[in-house]
Every structure is written in C-alpha cells, then in structure tokens.
Design brief:
The complex is a heterodimer of chains A (262) and B (259). Chain A has 262 residues and is mainly α. Chain A has ten helices and no strands. Chain A has two domains: 30 residues; 210 residues, Orthogonal Bundle (MetI-like fold). In chain A, helix 3 runs antiparallel to helix 8 and helix 9 packs antiparallel against helix 10. Chain A is flat, with a radius of gyration of 23 Å. Chain B has a single domain, classed as 3-Layer(aba) Sandwich (Rossmann fold). In chain B, helix 6 links the parallel strand 6 and strand 7. Classes of the chains: A mainly alpha (262), B alpha/beta (259). Chains A and B meet through helix 7 and helix 8 of A and strand 5 and helix 3 of B.
C-alpha cells in the first residue's frame, strides 16, 4: 500500500515538473533554441525517432560491448592476480593508473590506431570500465576466510578447485559491485568516446555524435530528446545489472533484497 | 572409553614439538603428547598458549619447526583422509545449500552423485537437520550452522576429529545441548578427538583427559584424567563428581594464569 502511494506520488511530481517547465518557457518567451518546452521535445522525439533509435542502438552496442569485454578481461586479470601474489603486488598499482588516465587524452591515440568509429568508441568504453572490475573482483578473490582455505586443503582440493569452487563464488558479490559501477560509466564512456571518435559518416554516429550534431545545428529540442534517450539508456543498464545481481545473489547474500527467513 | 585398538602405536603422537612463526614468536615449545585411539583430549588454557596451533600442527595445515608429529603412524599430510577439522565458526559456504555444504568433500573427490546424496542425507539425519537440507546457511541459527559443520566433518567417516572451539560463539543452552549430542555421536562412532576450549565446564563434561597449557611460550602444564561415568548426559552436570573435577581443573588453570 505504501509502495503504491510512493509510485503515485512520483508520477505526480513528474507531471508537476513538466507543467512548471512548460509554463516557464511560455511566460519567459524563450526561443526554441535556448530552451524548448516539453511539447517541442516530445515532437522532436516523435518526428525523428528513426535516427534517434539508430543512434541509441549504436551507443548501446558500444557501451554493452565495452562493458562485456571489460568483465571478461577484468575477471581474467583478477584471477591471475589471485593466483600469484607477487604478480599482484607488482602490477596492481597500475590498474589504479588505468583509472586515473584521462580518457579524453587517450581517445585521439586510439583513433590514431584503429581509426574513428564504433570500434574505437568500444575500446574507450572498455578501458574506463576495466579498473572497477579488476579492483573489486580481486578484492573478492583474495578476501576469502583463511579457515575456508584450510577446509579445502583438508579435503586435498586442487588449486583449480579452490579457485572455481571457493574464490570465484566468494567474489561474485564484489564482481557485481564492479559491474554496477562500470555499467554506469560505460554509457558515459560511450558518449564521451563518440565526441572524439564517433564516426563521421552520416547514419553511423551514436548518441554522443548526434548530440554534437544537434548542438551545432541549434536543434535544441532534438538535443533534449537525445539527452533524455541517453539518460534512459544509463538507467536501463543500471537496472539490468541490478536485476542480474538479484538473480545471482538473492538466495544467499546479505546485501541483496529482503528475504523471508524461517 | 575403551575401543578395540588393532593398530600398533598411538593414534596421535607429538614429540618435542616446537612451532616458531616467521616473526620469531614461539607459539608452542617442546610439547610431547601421546593420544591413544578413542581418547577425547581437550586443550584448556589462556589465550596465547598455542591450543589452536597444536590442532593446526596435527592437521598438517601448519608445519612444525622442530620435533615430530605422527598421526596413525604417518605424517599429518598423509593422514588427512583420517582427519576432519571443525573450526570455531561453522565455515559454511553461503552460496551453497545445507546439503551442498555437507556434500562438499565428496564433491571435491568426484564421488558419484547417488552415493553422495545418500551419505549426505544420512549425516543430516544424524544431526537432526534433514528438514533444512535445502536451506541456505543465512537462514539458520548459530547452533544449526554448527551442526551442519559437524555433519560435513562426519561425511568422510573420520577416525580423528580436531575441534577448534567449535561452540565458543553459541549461547550456553545451545552449547550444552550440542555437547550432549557430540558425546552421543562420540560413543557411537568411537573417534579420537582433540578439542580446544576456554570453558572449564565444557572440557570436564566432554573429555577423557584434559591437558592444561601455559602461555608464552605455549607448553604443557598439567594433565587431568576425567573419570566421570559414561554415558554422560545433562544429569552428569548436576553430580558432585562433576563439580569436583571442575574445581580441580579451575585451580590448576588459575596457577597457569599467574606469572
């Protein structure tokens, strides 16, 4: 009952915000290129949805591709770190470096190597998603209770068994924390990547490219529609990861949603 | 407790065992101890007396610095199939159900699924936990978790149990009940047990022999034979003999605490 109330209230709040926005634009006589009203944005959304959808689709692919690659590579790197402590101590600091490298600075380098376009943007996304995955997963893999390791040793478990039956499942909540962080920045990575490395060919640019284009053309209503689409995309990524996390962990992990014990 | 001893030599034997850690701290020094098959020996002593270290040495999880440890005449590493270790916390894998936890050892040995299922069901029945087989550890109370841990330890049909303060985190009522359950199983299954505790009452109730250790460095101080009659039940705790043994053990323990 309380939940339904909250949902209803947030719809009301949203409607009020739209109304205020629309009134402000009307009263201040703001021109369309400065601040379009909600109606103009909705019209832009309606009239240009084929090109908006194609941009959205491209950015989704770049963000999802970069994120997926960062999960595969990040987990592999973390597993290597977990197996060889000396290697971890040697190399781990550089993964923090990876996080602090300004993506804006290396994007031109990547274009230089692979040329502008979807692939370059996917690489940019991959790079900024990688560090949170490595850091969180490594923490989970090495943070196993010593007695659990002892238990496995008493069973004469092989190193592979300790990795796959103990360390990896133990690291699953940490991995999901990493994915959640990376999912948020993957969309941002895709957008910023496109600002630098997006395709110059018509019909091949993603949201970031379209935003630059709309801004140059003073198509502010369409720009708003694109920003709206980018926000929805980021939110969907976050929501999907949350859902997968719940699927994987809700049976046993404390951090997942409330659970009826007994 | 008497059991047929068809094996030459003691079940567990420590000779002049010293354990020094890499930071040069001496955990135990010059410990010699012989445990016959079927004995229930409890290590009792203040923190820092090396009780847990001794269990780690007997299990081979930690190598000795000096001296020798023999388990059933073998090195600890080679005797692991005879030994089950029960830790202070239940050390269950939270992502596995109760039955998957209990079957862990057989799974790691690639035992056939039907045999595993049968054995797991039997062990859960033994600790009266069949009704929670499909639950996850987070859904269990502390006492239930510990019983799962015990069931898991019993799956491999161990001859020797090493128990490192297994009931320390439980409330007294639960601990007493689990003590009684443990003794029931012990009388049935005729293990040799090395047990570590802080509680004098628990030590007296469970043991055939108590070994009191002194700290800094950990070493043997006293040994007490506990000759309370068998079977020991809740009523045993009300007997005069029980009180006397506790008084005696407490007195010896106090001597060890003083510098």
């Amino acid at each position: 009952m309380k939940k339904r109330w909250l949902a209803l209230n947030s719809v009301v709040v949203f409607a009020c915000l739209l109304a205020i926005w629309s009134r402000v634009v009307a009263f201040a006589h703001l021109p369309l290129y400065i601040l379009p009203g909600p109606r103009a944005v909705a019209e832009a959304l309606r009239d240009r949805y084929p090109s908006l959808l194609s941009s959205l689709w491209i950015t989704t692919g770049e963000a999802a591709g970069g994120l997926a690659a960062s999960i595969v590579v990040g987990v592999a790197v973390a597993m290597i770190f977990a197996q060889w402590r000396w290697l971890r101590q040697l190399v781990f600091p550089y993964t923090i470096l990876l996080q602090t490298v300004p993506i804006v600075a290396i994007a031109p380098l990547i274009i230089n190597w692979v040329g502008p376009g979807i692939f370059a943007v996917t690489i940019v996304t991959f790079i900024i998603c990688l560090a949170p995955i490595i850091a969180n997963t490594t923490q989970g893999l090495v943070g196993v209770d010593e007695n659990l390791i002892h238990l496995f040793l008493m069973y004469k478990a092989t190193p592979a068994q300790i990795l796959f039956k103990l360390r990896l499942p133990h690291a699953l909540p940490n991995l999901f924390t990493g994915i959640r962080i990376s999912a948020g920045i993957s969309v941002i990575g895709g957008l910023t990547g496109e600002l630098f490395a997006g395709s110059t060919r018509v019909g091949e640019g993603g949201l970031g490219y379209a935003i630059i284009y709309a801004s140059n053309q003073m198509e502010t209503a369409y720009l708003f529609a694109l920003v709206f689409a980018a926000t929805v995309l980021g939110f969907s990524f976050f929501f999907i990861v949350m859902f997968l996390e719940w699927l994987a962990l809700h049976n046993w992990h404390e951090s997942s949603l409330p659970h009826t014990a007994e | 407790m008497v059991s047929e001893n068809n094996k030459v030599g003691p079940e567990i034997e420590l000779q002049g065992v010293t354990k020094r850690y890499r930071n040069a701290a001496v955990a135990v020094q010059g410990v010699s101890l012989t445990v016959e098959r079927g004995e229930f020996v409890t290590f009792l002593g203040p923190s820092g007396c090396g009780k847990s270290t001794l269990l780690k040495l007997v299990s081979g999880l930690s190598p000795v610095t000096e001296g020798t440890v023999r388990v059933n005449g073998r090195t600890p590493e080679n005797a692991r199939d005879l030994v089950s270790f029960i830790f202070q916390d239940a050390t269950l894998l939270p992502w596995r159900t109760v039955e998957q936890n209990v079957g862990l050892g057989m799974e790691l040995e690639h035992a056939a699924r039907p045999a595993r299922k049968e054995r797991v069901a039997k062990m859960l029945d033994l600790v009266s936990l069949s009704h929670v087989a499909k639950r996850y550890p987070r859904q269990l109370s502390g006492g239930m978790k510990m019983r799962v841990s015990i069931a898991r330890a019993l799956v491999s049909r161990p001859r020797i149990l090493l128990m490192d303060e297994p009931f320390a985190a439980l409330d007294e009522m639960t601990r007493d009940r689990l003590n009684e359950e443990l003794l029931r199983l012990y009388t049935e299954q005729k293990w040799t047990v090395l047990f570590v505790t802080h509680s004098v009452a628990e030590a007296v109730f469970l043991s055939t022999r108590i070994v009191i250790l002194a700290p800094h460095p950990g070493r043997l101080a006293h040994e007490i034979e506990i000759d309370l009659p068998w079977p020991r039940t809740a009523e045993t705790r009300e007997s005069k003999a029980f009180e006397e043994q506790i008084t005696q053990a407490s007195r010896l323990l106090r001597g060890v605490y003083q510098p």
